[in-house]
C-alpha cells in the first residue's frame, strides 16, 4: 500500500476550499469505480480505464446548484495524478515549480495540476481552486475511507 502524505499536514482549511466538501461521503468503492457524493447535490466518480498498473482514470463530477442549474465536468487523470491528488505520494518539485508559475503563489497547496486538481493537506478541489461562491469545482475532505477506496482503486 501507499504511505499517506496527509498525516503531517495541518488542519488549516485553505481559503480556496469549499466547506461543502465536509459533506462529501464515500458512496461506492470497487476495483474499477469510486463514487464520493453529497446526496443529490454533488457527485464525484473516479473510474479506472484499464487493468495495467499505470492505468488512467476518468474523473467526472456534477454539481446541482438548485432544481434548474447544474454543472458537469470530466478529466482524465494518470495514476500519478490520482496519488498526488489524494495525498498518497508527494508531488515532484518540478511540477510544483510549474504550478507556482500558473497560480502565481496565490494559493497555498501541497500538490496541484492546474485545471485538474489542487490539494492542501486533506482538502482537495477538482478541477481548480474555488474563486467565486458558485464555482464549478468539487471539494472533498480526504478521510480514511476515501484514502482506502482510492488505494484499492489503484491496485491492478
Description:
The protein has 156 residues and is an alpha+beta fold. It has one domain. Helices cover 19% and strands 33% of the residues. The protein is built from three helices and nine strands. The longest helix has 11 residues, at 93-103. 35% of the residues are buried. The mean pLDDT is 86.
Short description:
The protein has 156 residues and is of the alpha+beta class. The protein contains 3 helices and 9 strands, in the order βββββααββββα.
Q: Which SSEs are present, and which pair or pack?
A:
Elements: E1 25-29, E2 33-38, E3 42-48, E4 56-64, E5 70-78, H1 79-85, H2 93-103, E6 111-113, E7 117-120, E8 123-126, E9 138-141, H3 144-154
Antiparallel strand pairs: 1-2, 2-3, 3-4, 4-5, 6-7, 7-8, 8-9
**Helix/sheet category:** alpha+beta
- Per DSSP, the total helix count is 3
Helical coverage, percent range? 10-25%
Poorly predicted runs = none
Strand tally: 9
Number of domains: 1
Strand content: 25-35%
Which whole number gives the mean pLDDT?
Answer: 86
What is the succession of H and E elements? EEEEEHHEEEEH
Shape: globular
Strands ordered across the widest β-sheet: 1-2-3-4-5
Q: Report how far apart the termini are.
A: 12 Å
Radius of gyration: 15 Å
Largest sheet: 5 strands, antiparallel
Features:
156 residues, five-stranded antiparallel β-sheet, alpha+beta, 9 strands
Amino acid at each position: 500500500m501507499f504511505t499517506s502524505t496527509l498525516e503531517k499536514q495541518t488542519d488549516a482549511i485553505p481559503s480556496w476550499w469549499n466547506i461543502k466538501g465536509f459533506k462529501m461521503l464515500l458512496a461506492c468503492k470497487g476495483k474499477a469505480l469510486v463514487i464520493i457524493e453529497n446526496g443529490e447535490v454533488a457527485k464525484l466518480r473516479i473510474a479506472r480505464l484499464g487493468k495495467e498498473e499505470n492505468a488512467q482514470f476518468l474523473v467526472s463530477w456534477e454539481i446541482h446548484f438548485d432544481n434548474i442549474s447544474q454543472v458537469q465536468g470530466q478529466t482524465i487523470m494518470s495514476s500519478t495524478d490520482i496519488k498526488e491528488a489524494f495525498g498518497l505520494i508527494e508531488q515532484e518539485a518540478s511540477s510544483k515549480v510549474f504550478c507556482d508559475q500558473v497560480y502565481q503563489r496565490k494559493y497555498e497547496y501541497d500538490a496541484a495540476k492546474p485545471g485538474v486538481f489542487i490539494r492542501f493537506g486533506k482538502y482537495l478541489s477538482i478541477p481548480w481552486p474555488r474563486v467565486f461562491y458558485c464555482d464549478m469545482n468539487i471539494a472533498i475532505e480526504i478521510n480514511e475511507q476515501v484514502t482506502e477506496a482510492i488505494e484499492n482503486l489503484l491496485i491492478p
